[in-house]
Amino acid sequence: MDLTQAAGNPVYRFYKNPNVRFMFFGALLCLVPYLKDIGVFNAGMLITIGGAIIYSVAALGLNLLLGFAGLISLGVAGFVGLGAYATAYFTKDLGLAFWVAALGAIALATLIGLLVGLVSLRVSGLYLAIATLCVSEILLKTFESFDSITGGMTGKRAAYPTILGTTLTREGTYIMLVIVLVLLMMLTRNLVKGSFGRALHAMRGSEVAAQAMGVNLLKYRLLAFALSTAYAALAGALYVTFIRSSYPTTWTITLSLNILAVVVIGGFRSIYGTILGSFVAFIVPDLILKKLPVIGDVPGLAYIFNGVMIIIVIMFYPAGLIKLFSDARGLALRLVSGKARKAVN
Amino acid sequence: MADNLERAASLAISDLSIHFGGLKAVDNLSFTVYEKEIFGLIGPNGAGKTTVFNCITQFYKPNAGSVKFLANTGETVELVGRPVHTIIKLGLVRTFQNVEVIKELPLIDNVLIGAHTSFKASVFEQALTLPRARREERRFREKAMNALDILGISDRANMLAGGQPYGVLKRVELARAIVSDPKLIILDEPAAGLNESETETLSHTIKLLRDQIGCTILLVEHDMGLVMGICDRICAISFGKFLACGSPSEIQKNKLVQEAYLGEQQGGDD
Amino acid sequence: MSTFLQILLRSLETGGVYALAALAIIIVLRTSMVAHFAQGTMAMFSTYVVALLCSKRGFPLWQSLLIGVAVAVAMAFAVDFFIIRRAKRASAVSKEIITLGLIMVFLGLAPVVFGVDPQLMPKAIPHGGDFQFLGASISHNAFLNICIGLFFMGLLFFILQKTKLGLAVRVTASNEPIARLMGVSTRNITLLAWITAGILGLLSGVMIAPATTVTTTLMNPVQLNALFACVLGGFQTFYGPVLGAYIIGIGRNLLTYYVSSEWGEQLLYVLLLIFLLLRPNGLIGRKFIKKV
Question: C or N: which end of chain C has fewer Cβ atoms within 10 Å?
Fold first, then answer.
């Protein structure tokens, strides 16, 4: 607490810089492969955590849309899948470099997202939810039936990325995921702190006031949706290069709802919250619930857990689990100061 | 006020009409607001005052009539038919009857929303915090701080809007209007919900806006004390129809206005 | 011509199913301001009960149906009483999220309660034949479904338009706070809407189930088409979605028969999106003027 007086202190400013904190957070995540090597985790855990990181990317995009602009998309899984298949096709069939393929996949998905947004965003938020639900169905059907590109039900294979002539290992790819996540956290923070973020806030807070202040509703809704689609496609590109395969059964409404759960559980408009949410929604069921007696064997347990969590969080703790940290700190401070007061007396 | 004739018209409304179903909310209304004037629009409850505001700012599309506005470019433009979000760029900004602020943002960011159309940096530049985006953010943040200072709430700049008292939020709305560099500010019941001393401060602030920033002010208000105290001219309407227009004393003496207010409240007695 | 008529008749059956589901969604939306995304999933749940009782326990269909209705009512009651009522002040988006959470809960619970095997739903008329009609044929069961669908829709619209209860529902739909001030018990109306939606969902499920097997994904296409029926017909009236449902039912069958059996449905969705671009408020919808 003495640090608060040292606002001019360069060490303190460095410590308080959000980008430095994001990098520090990334460094922590990079420890996972080493923890695996010394036997704390098994290899399966590395993939699970990698998966949670990938879904965090898609969820960050959804949080821009849902948390900031207050719009629901039910097509996240479809767009992640589109990113995955497009990246696999561009690298495997067309022989493009991973980053070119990923950019191509993002461009393709964003274009489709813009079209869908243009159709549905002119009326009300509910239309976007229904339109994205439908687009998600169309995409899923395409993944199943467009054999020549997607491999149909037998799935599509991909490889670890080759960057600057060297093909990464699984651990290397994992590190790449972390780097992308940290970069996106920085970008997202910059975006929401600027006039773009304020415009989204204004729209969610009051559409009429936003319009009166010169915010073009359609433009900003479209931008938010296009961005969230781009994040989803990027997540797809990361998925296919980390997991090295893609099946239509992955990209159903189930995944869209799980990613929605990430945003709700973690906390609207919170970057760290989104990542926390992803770890809770994708890792806790695997790591903890499955080990419980009796209910551990229930097949849809993870899904029920996430569904119940969504409802409970929305109803009783709408700021999301990330608020637990500040609440805990507030409680601790109160306890400490209470003790201090007693000591003085 | 004879010199009005030589002044340029800031806002000229002519033959404005709008109806919802069979109800004529505004019926063939005309009035003109001159530059640097504080102009009041009064009328009993349900007279259609807010509807007039909504027709000016294009939230409602009037069925007939025109709204001419002397824009910040120096040209007189027709507002009817323009998209709502383009109005503020011309130099016309409004506040709302029920304060519309974003609870999750600090006051300063709420004020910055008023400068939305002044930001030129693209989303891309913002994401990478390129120099232009940083420069703009710094410049307008300073400006927003000044606006909060003028309204005497700069000490609360970094507090969240949620949980602030109503009077503060009303001032935040005013500050938000100021940072858009307006030529004309439209205030929808600025004194509603304020206590006596707050209303007193408000009337000073409104005069300040006109004298220091050089805005024209158009306001709807129920607090007759405020309206009679600060307005240069007043237009009275009832059931969407024009009743009278003139100086506060002329309006107070006007028979039609007194009749319209009879049974509801005595027009003009403080 | 007889093929066309055949398709039309079949569309009346699927359209009727969509219409019941769409009515369920619109009644809940208009009375409790909740976009009920879990309508299909909850219908799947109660349909599973009926199928399981019939095929595993050997109950006759009518008895299973009664129990199914009881389950549907209980579920609707529980959801409204324990969740929706308590989230009344939440934003529209939060309520949508709640119903999405309900999808996850019921979809996750289904295999736990019913097992993972697909179940068969018996036909209402076990050895029914076909009616011949101008060269087109329609099975007795399909005819029965069309009639049941029309009957329940007729009953619902009669109640809505001609009874005091219906008036209360319509008042609640047009302005909930005013309705409350006028002495309408909007709580009960909302509860009733959820229960009606549950029963309509069960009906649509039981009608569509014999044509396929009962699995957790049984109601997905019905839910999607019902939502689209609401978009097509507009959210402002009760009959708009019903009209939309029949149009979708007919359009879907025509496209799958005459254009492409594999892509017909997707094509329909694309056409619907284009329609939305041209008429964003739907067929019956009108622009809603917001008070500022």
Answer: N
